[in-house]
Amino acid sequence: MPIKSFKPTTPARRLASVDAYADLTKFEPEKSLITMKKRSGGRNNQGKITVRHRGGGARRYLRDVDNKREKYDVPAKVEAIEHDPARGARIALLVYRDGVRRYMVAPNGIAVGQTVVSSLHRVEVTPGNRMPLSEIPVGMTIHDVELLPGQGGRMVRGAGLGAQLMAVEGDHAQVKLPSGEVRRLPKGCMATIGSVGNPDHRLVRLGKAGRMRHRGIRPTVRGKVMNPVDHPHGGGEGKHPIGMKYAKTKWGKHALGVKTRRSKKWSNKMIVKRRKGIL
User: Fold this and answer.
1) What gap in Å lies between CA 143 and CA 153, rounded to an integer?
2) Which of 202, 236, 264 is the last residue before a domain boundary?
3) Are residues 74 and 171 in the same domain?
């Protein structure tokens, strides 16, 4: 994905860069595969704000991406490569032999006219083909990986990401995730060959606050510039430290580096090696 920068005619233009969209072959989405994104402004069903800094933003359609690809052994032709406003990765429009159209997360290197297939048995090991972990050669790069068989892809779907199949032993396979974590998964879980496309997405610099507002993200105010009634870090005369042993959230809970994973979560037994080399 080429990144486009600008002449520094304004302070924002000096830092900003945008996606040039040079790899797209179709700019209008398939009308049968889109739904309007319902916006909540961060509020729950009682009207209370449960997620702060949400609101506004450009209206957009969500693409119905097929993460299961259950049309097994039916070849599909890549008709177009498209942009999805809800993700950094590209999506590919597939046309099956029976005329059905579906979206999939586009792997790196896929091209229009290429044929891909999803199967419960071993098929050709090329980017875009999907099969169970037990049928994929050890050492291959994979993405769009299931956590449970038949659940649909849940992991490794971000732009430029890829996991590695480490081993298949007994009823489970070991997969090394982009974070460095090694996890055991049922060998019947499906995965797609290759890494996710659009790896340069991380190089885009927004450059100005207005582009965050277009994404529906409102300004965030630091706690230490608030009043004591509004935040534990607030108050005092002039600039000052937070005045406590550890950082707190707006509601007085521990912040910055706190573990949020439940210690007795059922899937702990599936983690062989945690990220950062912690067992």
Assistant:
1) 8
2) 202
3) yes
Mean per-residue pLDDT for 63-68?
A: 95
CB atoms within 10 A of CB 256: 8
Of residues 277, 83, 34, 68, the one with CA closest to residue 192: 68
Q: Say if residues 143 and 163 touch (Cβ distance below 8 Å).
A: yes
d(CA 77, CA 50): 43
Same domain for 188 and 247, yes or no, is no
Contact 268, 170 (CB under 8 A): no
Number of domains in the chain: 2
- For residue 185, the tally of other CB atoms under 10 A from its CB is 23
Q: Are residues 61 and 185 in the same domain?
A: yes
Task: Tell me the C-alpha to C-alpha distance, in Å, between residue 166 and each of 1, 14, 141, 182, 250.
Answer: 29, 44, 10, 8, 42
Binning pLDDT at 50, 70 and 90, where does residue 257 land?
confident
Q: What is the pLDDT of residues 142-166, one digit of tens each?
A: 999 999 999 999 999 999 999 999 9
Q: Could you tell me if 214 and 208 are in contact, meaning their C-beta atoms sit under 8 angstroms apart?
A: no
Measuring CA to CA, which residue among 225, 233, 227 is closest to residue 250?
Answer: 233
Distant-in-sequence contacts of 226-235, Cβ < 8 A, 24+ apart: none
Same domain, 139 and 89: yes
Residue 229's pLDDT is: 96
